[in-house]
């Protein structure tokens, strides 16, 4: 269980180079490319009519589970001539709805067997359940509890991720691909610059749509190990606010409305 | 072994002592049963028996505390990591997960998925012993307790003769099954001998034996050490 | 090391000797000698302290060393400027022993004081420092010397300018909003980055799966 303390921002595509060089100078570190495939699963509650209260009479609201894994960069096919070098400039070539990979291929990962050694890429997935960020009108940063677990692999007669999640009582809700660069700053502060695509899967065809069109999502965050570590949380908050002040007037880092980070199911 | 007493372990050890080669690390097990709380409107669930609503989690200290989660009806096993050392680095470096110890799946089920899954039973064994015998059998024995008291004696046998200690040999499922069967036979003989004075109970029918043996494999096409091991535990421990 | 200017320093004891004899003080440049003596005392003290600090097993913090060095350099500059200030007086000062001087018991002191050339160890210091400057120790030509000094000054000036410009490039503290906007003009764009979408729109999607028609988000 980690406390994720974060601030968010948005920049347009023209500002990408400047932002990267700003953060590079600020942090003294180079941008690092990353990519992940996130699948979001919802409980089968619509069919099963789940109560929000468990056997111990505690409120447990149905929550989505985000299951994600990395996409190795060698699986991407970049059209630009700079294929060989995977550096931060790659993100500039990703301005439209398409991702440099067959969306069908990505979707198929969910339904392929997840057994050990069955595919070239790793069969491990991370499971994350995010609580709604902490409330409070005078909150200066977003504070969210995330419960994380790791599925090393599945095994059995049917062992795809889809089978696995179904066994747990979850159905695929939606999924998306994130490609971005990240900076590791001091004190475990991480700044991510993200491009996000949603993958729509209709029968046998899949297409992608960029959610972050014309711009990039900026996420600055620190994961604090224990929610009881108040000192560390306070320190981290100061850290983020310092960054916010440093970038003031250039990129506005804000706390998002906590409702937008609420991954609970809402059945009405 | 169900109708055993805590002392049966000592008796078993005595019987084994002639062929004992080496005593290895201690181990522990945590076996939990979960039951789906959903009212079961799905046809698939209605058709199958109530067992289909069960899910088991087995955490084994001698497997780096990895947890095997097994859903009864779909025969699917999920192997969950217990420490951050086991998390593949690409998950961390790509921001899929934070660089901390993941929470045990049992905690996740109990805290976050408790509206879907209710924990029914928890069987624990601690301070189990591991023996290596002269016929290259790795035997793990442990006394199991639940909240109500002693539950029985659990014995796990692993044949190490095929590929050595590190890899390859499956629990109750090896390439040279015949020899393994023979080795198991010596163990069962001991068990029969021990159980004669006590009253007995078998899984389906009442016979003269009070032990259950499982050599099952979750998936015959693709054997998996941890998955199969977990499944065998479930087969032995489910009631 | 402690007495870089041998000649002037050796004048000092003369002063004390003559004190004892109560001669005519009129011709003695007391003020100049005293000023030089005081500054040299300070300088030797500082230099000794640095030497002691550096020979210790555990080195002092870099910033304390740096401030010490700064003080020492200021004192050295002060010695130089004092010497320059009294150059005429000191150059024309001639040391001679009085008849009462105990020549037998203080022969060494007397010969040192009456030397016209530098003492051998002083010569060695001068040569060493010339070598350290990258000069030919045998070149006595004043022009050569000045040229070398000028080169040295040029390099120092360049280094200072470079440090200043590089520092400004990386100095993001205390920059007003206007500065940043101006900087943007020179860099890449003439405006603050636009926000093609709202943070909440994106997060609502990643956390809740709500899509608000991303193609229209701009």
From TrEMBL, chain A:
Q: Which GO terms describe its molecular function?
A: RNA polymerase II core promoter sequence-specific DNA binding; transcription coactivator activity
Chief location bin: nucleus
Q: One GO biological process from the UniProt record? A: RNA polymerase II preinitiation complex assembly
Q: Which Pfam families match?
A: Med18
Q: Where in the cell is it found?
A: Nucleus
Q: Which UniProt keywords apply?
A: Activator, Nucleus, Transcription, Transcription regulation
Keyword Transcription regulation (UniProt): yes
Instruction: Report one GO cellular component.
Output: mediator complex
Q: How does it assemble?
A: Component of the Mediator complex.
Q: What does this protein do?
A: Component of the Mediator complex, a coactivator involved in the regulated transcription of nearly all RNA polymerase II-dependent genes. Mediator functions as a bridge to convey information from gene-specific regulatory proteins to the basal RNA polymerase II transcription machinery. Mediator is recruited to promoters by direct interactions with regulatory proteins and serves as a scaffold for the assembly of a functional preinitiation complex with RNA polymerase II and the general transcription factors.
User: Which protein family is named in the record?
Assistant: Belongs to the Mediator complex subunit 18 family.
This protein's name: Mediator of RNA polymerase II transcription subunit 18
Species of provenance: Naumovozyma dairenensis (strain ATCC 10597 / BCRC 20456 / CBS 421 / NBRC 0211 / NRRL Y-12639)
Task: Give the taxonomic lineage as stored in the record.
Answer: Eukaryota, Fungi, Dikarya, Ascomycota, Saccharomycotina
Corresponding gene? NDAI0G01150
TrEMBL record, chain B:
* Classification via InterPro entries: Mediator_Med20 (IPR013921)
In this record, what's one Pfam family? Med20
Q: Which GO terms describe its cellular component?
A: core mediator complex; mediator complex
**Which is a GO BP term held by this UniProt record?**
positive regulation of transcription elongation by RNA polymerase II
- Localisation per UniProt entry: Nucleus
Q: Which UniProt keywords apply?
A: Activator, Nucleus, Transcription, Transcription regulation
**A GO MF label:** protein domain specific binding
Which family is this protein grouped under?
A: Belongs to the Mediator complex subunit 20 family.
Quote the function comment for this protein: Component of the Mediator complex, a coactivator involved in the regulated transcription of nearly all RNA polymerase II-dependent genes. Mediator functions as a bridge to convey information from gene-specific regulatory proteins to the basal RNA polymerase II transcription machinery. Mediator is recruited to promoters by direct interactions with regulatory proteins and serves as a scaffold for the assembly of a functional preinitiation complex with RNA polymerase II and the general transcription factors.
Q: Assembly and partners? A: Component of the Mediator complex.
Name-wise, this protein is Mediator of RNA polymerase II transcription subunit 20
UniProtKB/TrEMBL annotation, chain C:
One GO biological-process annotation of the entry reads:
positive regulation of transcription initiation by RNA polymerase II
Q: Which GO terms describe its cellular component?
A: core mediator complex; mediator complex
Which ranges form a coiled coil?
none
Q: What's the short name of a Pfam family annotated to this entry? A: Med8
Q: Where in the cell is it found?
A: Nucleus
Keywords from UniProt, A to Z, are: Activator, Nucleus, Transcription, Transcription regulation
Q: What is its main location?
A: nucleus
Question: Which Gene3D superfamilies does its entry note?
Answer: 1.20.58.1710, 6.10.250.2610
What InterPro entries does this protein map onto? Mediatior_Med8_fun/met
Q: Which domain of life is it from?
A: Eukaryota
Single Gene Ontology MF annotation: RNA polymerase II cis-regulatory region sequence-specific DNA binding
Q: How does this chain assemble?
A: Component of the Mediator complex.
Give the family per the record: Belongs to the Mediator complex subunit 8 family.
Role description: Component of the Mediator complex, a coactivator involved in the regulated transcription of nearly all RNA polymerase II-dependent genes. Mediator functions as a bridge to convey information from gene-specific regulatory proteins to the basal RNA polymerase II transcription machinery. Mediator is recruited to promoters by direct interactions with regulatory proteins and serves as a scaffold for the assembly of a functional preinitiation complex with RNA polymerase II and the general transcription factors.
**Protein name listed in UniProt:** Mediator of RNA polymerase II transcription subunit 8
What species was this sequence derived from? Naumovozyma dairenensis (strain ATCC 10597 / BCRC 20456 / CBS 421 / NBRC 0211 / NRRL Y-12639)
Tell me what gene encodes this.
NDAI0C05530
């Amino acid at each position: 269980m980690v406390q994720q303390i974060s601030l968010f921002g948005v920049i347009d595509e023209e500002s990408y180079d400047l932002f990267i060089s700003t953060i590079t100078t600020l942090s003294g570190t180079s941008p690092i490319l990353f990519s992940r495939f996130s699948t979001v699963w919802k409980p089968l509650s619509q069919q099963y009519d789940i109560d929000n209260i468990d056997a111990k009479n505690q409120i447990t609201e149905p929550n989505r589970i985000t299951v994600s894994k990395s996409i190795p960069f060698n699986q991407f096919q970049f059209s630009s001539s700079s294929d060989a070098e995977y550096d931060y400039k790659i993100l500039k070539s990703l301005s439209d709805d398409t991702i440099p990979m067959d969306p069908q291929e990505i979707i198929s990962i969910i339904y392929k067997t997840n057994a050990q050694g069955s595919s070239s890429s790793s069969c491990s997935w991370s499971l994350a359940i995010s609580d709604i960020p902490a409330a409070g009108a005078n909150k200066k940063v977003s504070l969210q509890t995330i419960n994380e677990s790791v599925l090393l692999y599945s095994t059995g007669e049917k062992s795809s991720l889809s089978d696995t999640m179904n066994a747990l009582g979850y159905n695929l809700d939606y999924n998306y691909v994130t490609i971005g660069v990240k900076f590791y700053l001091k004190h475990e502060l991480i700044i991510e610059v993200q491009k996000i695509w949603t993958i729509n899967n209709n029968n046998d065809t899949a297409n992608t749509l960029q959610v972050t069109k014309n711009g990039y999502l900026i996420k600055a965050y620190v994961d604090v190990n224990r929610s009881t570590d108040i000192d560390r949380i306070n320190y981290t908050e100061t850290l983020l606010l310092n960054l916010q002040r440093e970038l003031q007037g250039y990129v506005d880092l804000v706390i998002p409305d906590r409702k937008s980070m609420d991954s609970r199911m809402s059945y009405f | 072994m169900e109708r055993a007493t805590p002392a049966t372990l000592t008796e078993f050890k005595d019987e084994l002592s002639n062929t004992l080669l080496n005593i290895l690390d201690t181990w522990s097990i945590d076996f939990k049963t979960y039951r789906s709380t959903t009212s079961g409107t799905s046809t698939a669930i209605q058709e199958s028996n109530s067992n289909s609503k069960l899910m088991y989690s087995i955490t084994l200290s001698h497997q780096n505390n990895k947890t095997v989660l097994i859903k009864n009806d779909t025969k699917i096993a999920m192997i969950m990591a217990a420490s951050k050392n086991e998390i593949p680095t690409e998950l961390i470096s790509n921001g899929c997960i934070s660089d901390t110890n993941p929470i045990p799946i049992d905690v996740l089920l109990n805290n976050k998925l408790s509206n879907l899954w209710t924990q029914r039973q928890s069987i624990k064994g601690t301070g189990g012993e591991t023996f290596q015998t002269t016929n290259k059998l790795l035997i793990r024995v442990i006394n199991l307790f639940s909240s109500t008291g002693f539950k029985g004696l659990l014995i796990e046998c692993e044949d190490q003769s095929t590929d050595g200690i590190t890899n390859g040999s499956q629990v109750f499922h090896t390439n040279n099954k015949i020899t393994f069967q023979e080795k198991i036979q010596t163990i069962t003989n001991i068990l029969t001998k021990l159980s004669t004075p006590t009253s007995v109970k078998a899984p389906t029918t009442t016979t003269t034996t009070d032990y259950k043996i499982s050599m099952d494999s979750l998936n015959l096409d693709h054997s998996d050490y941890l998955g199969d091991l977990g499944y065998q535990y479930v087969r032995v421990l489910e009631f | 090391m402690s007495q870089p200017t041998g000649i002037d320093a050796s004048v000092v004891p003369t002063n004390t000797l003559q004190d004892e004899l109560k001669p005519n003080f009129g011709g003695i440049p007391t003020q100049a000698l005293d000023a030089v003596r005081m500054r040299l005392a300070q300088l030797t003290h500082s230099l000794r302290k640095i030497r002691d600090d550096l020979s210790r097993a555990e080195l002092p913090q870099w910033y304390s060393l740096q401030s010490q060095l700064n003080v020492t350099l200021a004192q050295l500059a002060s010695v130089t400027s004092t010497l320059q200030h009294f150059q005429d007086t000191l150059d024309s000062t001639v040391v001679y022993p009085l008849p009462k001087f105990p020549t037998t018991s203080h022969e060494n002191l007397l010969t040192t004081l009456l030397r016209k050339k530098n003492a051998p160890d002083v010569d060695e210091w001068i040569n060493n420092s010339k070598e350290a400057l990258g000069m030919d120790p045998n070149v006595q030509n004043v022009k050569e010397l000045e040229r070398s000094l000028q080169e040295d000054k040029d390099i120092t000036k360049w280094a200072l300018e470079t440090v200043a410009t590089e520092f400004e490039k990386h100095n993001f503290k205390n920059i007003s909003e206007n500065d940043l906007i101006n900087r943007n003009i020179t860099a890449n764009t003439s405006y603050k980055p636009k926000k093609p979408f709202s943070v909440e729109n994106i997060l609502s999607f990643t956390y809740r799966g709500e899509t608000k028609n991303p193609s229209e988000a701009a």
